Amino acid sequence: MGKVTLQGKVIIPGAAQGKALVSNEPLSFWGGYNWKTGEIIDRRHMLSGAVAKDKILAVPFTRGSSTTTAVLLEAIRAKTAPAAILTTDTDFFFALASVVADELYASPLPLVALAPEDFSRLKTDDAIQITTAGIVTITR
Amino acid sequence: MLTLSQKDHEQLRGDHGPAAKMAMSIVARMAEVADATELLDITGAHIDSTVYIGEAGLEFAERLASLGAKVSVPTTLNVSGLDEHHWREWAVPSEWARQAHRQMVAYQSMGTIPTWTCAPYQTEMRPSFGQQVAWGESNAIVFANSVLGARTERYPDLFDICCAITGRAPAIGLHLTEHRAGELLFRLIDIPEHLTQSDDFYPVLGHLIGKASLDKIPVIEGITVQPEEDHLKAFGAAAASSGGVAMFHMIGITPEAPTREQAFQGKSPVKTIHVTMDDLRESRRALAHTDSSKLDMVVLGSPHFSLAEYKRLAPMLEGKRKHPGVKFLVTSSRAMTQLADRAGFLKPLQSFGAQITVDTCILTSPMLPEEIQNLMTNSAKFAYYAPGLLGKKIAFGSLEDCVHSAVAGEIVRDEARWAK
Question: Tens digit of pLDDT for each residue in B182-217?
């Protein structure tokens, strides 16, 4: 495949790079993400057991509990959060964790939304680079 | 493009103090993220951020408190991490309790009402029809929108308190009439009327509908007997756990759905789904995460037990005593428990050997000792989250099933009502 460049919608700007961890299933962080380790712990989720710390996590959106934001904020503080998160639409819960992390620790988490057809081109273990302008480069 | 009012700008500049400045900066940034064009006034708030998760949530609360944050609208508080006066009777580590208590103190210092309950609609701060509010806690959100006809978007932790301080929320989603129309039609097919009057029908139906709806607004057609308020509470909590349901309509029952036409605001359903007895049986099966009849503990009260539930439970326990090998726990709020005490409903609980915990919940407090492994509940919400959050096995049954099981010392369920 080589290199593919996609233009996403910037939700929270920031540059990041890392290996992709991809799922087309929505994820709740409460009961789904261990902020002490960065492991995905929802035992019914296809990413169960994978560690998202420092990866580029790609999930379409969050589901379930209103505590997802608080769990992601803990992960950002504990440095067990993904390096960035890619979604298919604006996710209010992820965005709030990033905005609060910016207020408290001046370390916002980059968030970019991709069109569903672009999102579906992502594969786990792709090397991904994200720019502050929302340009997502995949190298495979 | 977001346009702010004069007062919003003042708060953003810091004219109303540093806490209002921080809160408004978060509200305004999030309003932009959500593509809102303006903010609207709210008349009340319910804060889910009281649940202690870790250091970051505590730092956020203490930062706001140290900046002198005060809420500008009547604000109730959700469950905290511990039963303030009785946590020592459980397995809560003292260091954890210290942190959770600091978080309680921080939120209480902001001029809030320390209700410590996930059922704020059971307090005197219950909003009325059409009122704009900013509520956290998924079961409270779905109850406010659907049963009361109040209006709140599905707000995450940390955002609810920013709305409470500023008195403002983005004009998006369920705050606006056009986003409150039903989307999916669920039609009950040949469900016996007597089953729809039993208390385990609603959590089972809610679990099924939440799973099939995800974040869409379901409309339920075919309920012919007016459900009790606790039935609607159990239904909503179930649907908000298995899916992201923030609002539902029940035709002829809930306030924005006197007719099917009105529930859908004149539009057609995106999809019509039939619900049969077989679907309900499957949903009831899916709620259980155990294959044995072993029982260590019965847990009731998610969402928090109401006065009416205490009243229904009391005569079931009269003259009985639980099995010595089983714990029997009711989780509720201080207010409901005190009312129940005055009404004499707690005496049968005490002689039965039941325990009561207030302010918190087994899902948000590390209170259960290691030897408790097999739970039983009448709550679809407990049944949904207990395996993942607590790593415990859990069975689901009606209130009566739970009482019978506690006496027998093992899980027993009345299958007759659900049989073919």
Answer: 999 999 999 999 999 999 999 999 999 999 998 899
Q: CATH number of the domain at A126, please.
A: 3.50.30.10
Burial of A36 (0-12, 13-18, 19+ CB in 10 A): exposed
**How many residues can be counted in chain A?**
140
Q: Does domain B297-418 have CATH number 3.30.499.10?
A: yes
Q: Please spell the DSSP secondary structure of A4-23, one letter per residue.
A: EEEEPEEEE---EEEEEEE-
This complex has an ipTM of: 0.94
Binary contact (A90, B136; C-beta < 8 A) = no
Half-sphere exposure of residue B32: CA atoms within 13 angstroms, side-chain side: 12
Residue A44 has pLDDT above 80, yes or no: no
Note if the pTM is more than 0.90. Answer: yes
Place of tokens 């090998």: B325
Structure letter (DSSP) for residue B177: G
Q: Please give the CATH topology (third level) of the domain spanning B6-177.
A: Aconitase; domain 3 (3.30.499)
Residue with tokens 């954890």, as numbered in its chain: B96
Residue A57: give the domain boundaries: 3-139
Number of domains in chain A: 1
Residue A65 annotated in active site: yes
For residue B97, give every residue at least 6 positions away whose Cβ sits within 8 Å of its Cβ, in sequence order, or none: B81, B82, B87
CB pairs under 8 A between A and B: 100
Every domain range in chain B assigned CATH 3.30.499.10:
6-177, 297-418
Give the best residue of A100, A104, A105, A109 to mutate against chain B (max B CB count within 10 A): A100
pLDDT, tens digit, 9 for 90 and up, residues B120-168: 999 989 999 999 999 999 999 999 999 999 999 999 999 999 999 999 9
Counting as low any pLDDT under 50, the low residues of chain B are none
